[in-house]
Specification:
Layout: H1 3-7, H2 11-34, H3 41-62
Helix pairs in contact: 2-3
């Protein structure tokens, strides 16, 4: 997910998207520990997407 895509979302949509990504990241971590995860790079990607969304939210709050 790119920053430009995130900035197009409203604040509520960003929060919802962050929560969905957190749940997804938890499930991916669980799958990784049980050996069911095929693509381990998704863990890193979801973690980065969460950080991007949190950054944009924080930028909006400081303005």
């Amino acid at each position: 997910m790119k920053i430009s895509e995130i900035k197009e979302l409203s604040l509520d949509e960003m929060v919802k998207k962050a929560n969905i990504l957190k749940e997804t990241h938890f499930n991916l971590r669980f799958q990784n520990e049980t050996g069911q995860l095929e693509n381990s790079s998704r863990l890193r990607q979801t973690r980065k997407d969460i950080a991007r969304i949190k950054t944009v939210i924080r930028q909006m709050q400081t303005k």
